[in-house]
Automatic annotation (TrEMBL):
Keywords: ATP-binding, Coenzyme A biosynthesis, Cytoplasm, Magnesium, Nucleotide-binding, Nucleotidyltransferase, Transferase. Its cofactor is Mg(2+). It comes from Rothia aerolata. ATP binds at residues 9-10, 17, 89-91, 99, 123-129. It catalyses: (R)-4'-phosphopantetheine + ATP + H(+) = 3'-dephospho-CoA + diphosphate. The record marks 17 as: Transition state stabilizer. The keyword DNA-binding does not apply. One of its GO terms (cellular component) is cytoplasm. Substrate binds at residues 9, 41, 74, 88. Belongs to the bacterial CoaD family. It is found in: Cytoplasm. Pathway: Cofactor biosynthesis; coenzyme A biosynthesis; CoA from (R)-pantothenate: step 4/5. This is Phosphopantetheine adenylyltransferase. NCBIfam families: coaD_prev_kdtB, cyt_tran_rel.
Length: 164
């Protein structure tokens, strides 16, 4: 069994994320879902809320653990956790172009490789931004987000209008 890191902000996590992480668990056996904070981003959900949603989402899946990623370089974090690779899902060419730059830098910094898993076509249009927008305007996201996320989205939109 090998360990890999699936990093992201997951604001919120959606079924495209779930699909990639479940596939990574099948391939490698042990996946650490690393919930990251980027100070340049404005989040709809707090770090603790994002952590809780991911934990609830993956509690059923063997080999998947969820944790907060400390404020360090991803490559250093992956190495500290004994990961053999970083796994990233890619939806399209724009995702790939961005992610390949990050992968190259991570490899040059620490030697850790990044493995890209293409999005399942039924989820290739999903992003956390789209999930928040559809929720904000009353759309049904039942097929696109895990139930724990849907519940929190409903509460958040009622309480705050899901402001970005």
């Amino acid at each position: 069994m090998q360990t890999v890191i699936c990093p992201g902000s997951f604001d919120p996590i959606h079924n495209g994320h779930v699909d990639v992480i479940a596939r990574a668990a099948k391939l490698y056996g042990n996946v650490i879902v690393a919930i990251a904070h980027n100070s340049a981003k404005k989040y709809s959900f707090t770090l603790d809320e994002r952590l809780a949603m991911a934990q609830e989402t993956f509690e059923y899946l063997d080999g998947v653990q969820v944790e907060l990623m400390p404020n360090v370089l991803l490559a250093d974090y992956a190495r500290s956790r004994g990961a053999v690779a970083i796994v990233k899902g890619v939806r399209n060419a724009a995702d790939f172009q961005y992610e390949v730059q990050m992968a190259s830098m991570n490899r040059h910094l620490t030697g850790i490789e990044t493995v890209f898993l293409p999005s399942d076509p039924k989820f290739s249009h999903l992003s956390s931004t789209i999930v928040r927008d559809v929720t904000r305007y009353g759309g049904d996201l039942t097929p696109y987000v895990p139930r724990p996320v849907q519940k929190r989205l409903e509460v958040k939109v009622t309480e705050t209008g899901l402001e970005d």
